[in-house]
Specification:
alpha+beta; Protein Transport Mog1p, Chain A; 2 domains; six-stranded antiparallel β-sheet; 8 helices; globular
């Protein structure tokens, strides 16, 4: 069943209005699976639907879904004919929690298999392919958990690069159903303000486990493939060592740690920023870790700069940050990367949240380099590489984790367009 974006709100409203329409518990979902007959005895007997034309919609797996006895155990599943698309490409799945709040939420951990026209399995996502990503602080909001669920999910992908590929199966395993996601969030009490509003007051961190379930809701996307993806799924080498993602004037690898995903990869953007890459991850308590790289092209028509363009550009950026964030503090130093002289800006600041009446700290660094293919005395291309650690409520550290502290060494200066 595909749920489009236009129907999500209506379905949520019906769930709230229907007193008897409660979401099944994890145990009830497991009981449904145990009691459901299998649809067929072989993969050739499965009915394969056309791949969803609307990849913005969510696909639900529930008691109405067919069941099959896979090699990894009995599971509900969905089955599709692969789209007619040039090879190679990636199939990306995001699986979202289902529930009224963190304490009773469940989540479906997918397995994806690609089959040929004779229903032979060509490849399957190995254990550990899907990583859990979470947004952090606002997940503890009971009243906004349905919104927070959009920012916490399992994400994984499989590369389709075999011309024999014909069908896709999405299911889960008995081992995965028996597992769960350790989960820490900030609890809130709703206190009436006396002015017609309820104010959320933090009550402390709560620890639960989001149980895996044979029921779930996920989204499938088609995406282009990088050479690094082919290396990852071929099982050769470490992704942290092999992956390199190109930008205009640079390429860079992700932080040397598991759990990071690509949040943005753009080129030929309007304005000064001609390309950007961003990798994100999160701590168990909800702090957000970001690593990024940008190429920024200055020009005489839009930048009235005199003297050293790099210095003036950095000063403008720092002043803009000070106007945006409270207590924005910086320390500047010189650094050399790959033989290129650069300027490093270490920063800390405090971001006030007007809704929760609290202040959340952050730290990180930005390193600015004039692309070695441009002259410092002209209007240059600037390569900016940096990290940002946004702390969850009640969390702070004196320094950055190792994968962020050394992230800038992953940059490589390439020919610029």
């Amino acid at each position: 069943m595909v749920v489009t974006g236009k129907t999500v709100f209506s379905l949520m409203l019906l769930l709230l209005l229907a007193a008897c329409a409660e979401l099944p518990t994890r145990q009830e979902a497991i009981d449904h699976l145990e009691q459901s007959p299998v649809c067929c005895q072989s993969l050739s007997g499965i009915s394969y639907a056309p791949f969803p034309a609307d990849t913005t919609g969510k696909i639900s797996i529930d008691s109405a879904s067919p069941a099959f006895e896979f090699d990894t155990g009995k599971s509900f599943f969905v089955a599709y004919t692969l789209p007619d698309r040039a090879l190679p490409y990636r199939l990306v799945a995001n699986s979202y929690p289902v529930g009224y709040g963190p304490a009773d939420a469940t989540i479906f951990e997918p397995t994806m298999s690609i089959l040929d026209s004779d229903y032979n399995v060509l490849c399957t996502t190995p254990p550990g392919t899907f990583t859990f990503t979470r947004q952090g602080f606002f997940e503890g909001f009971k009243l906004t958990f349905s919104v927070a669920m959009e920012s916490m999910f399992y994400e994984g992908a499989i590369v389709v690069d075999d011309p024999r590929a014909k069908y896709l199966l999405v299911y889960t395993s008995t081992e995965d159903i028996e597992a769960g996601v350790p989960y820490e969030y900030m609890g809130f009490a709703q206190v009436y303000s006396g002015c017609g509003y309820w104010i959320p007051i933090p009550t402390g961190k709560q620890q639960v486990a989001i149980g895996h379930s044979p029921f779930g809701m996920f989204r499938l996307d088609l995406a282009s493939v990088h050479a690094a993806d082919l290396a990852r799924f071929s099982g050769s080498g470490s992704p942290a060592d092999q992956d390199r993602y190109p930008g205009n004037g640079f390429s860079i690898g992700p932080p040397r740690s598991t759990g990071y995903r690509i949040a943005e990869q753009s080129s030929d953007l309007p304005g000064k920023t001609v390309s950007q890459l961003q990798f994100v991850s999160a701590t168990p308590s909800g702090s957000i870790l970001e690593a990024y790289a940008h190429s920024i092209l200055l020009d005489a028509d839009t930048d009235a700069l005199t003297g050293d363009p790099l210095t003036q550009f950095i000063d403008r950026t720092i002043n803009a940050q000070r106007q945006t964030f409270g207590d924005y503090r910086v320390e500047q130093s010189e650094i050399t990367i790959k033989g290129t002289s650069c300027r490093r800006i270490d920063f800390t600041y405090k971001a006030r949240n007007p809704l929760l009446l609290i202040v959340l700290p952050a730290r990180g660094y930005d390193i600015y380099c004039v692309h070695p293919g441009f002259s410092v005395t002209s209007y240059p291309m600037i390569i900016r590489v940096g990290v940002h650690y946004g702390y969850a409520y009640g969390e702070t550290t004196e320094g950055l984790p190792d994968e962020l502290a050394g992230y800038f060494n992953r940059i490589q200066f390439d020919a610029a367009d």
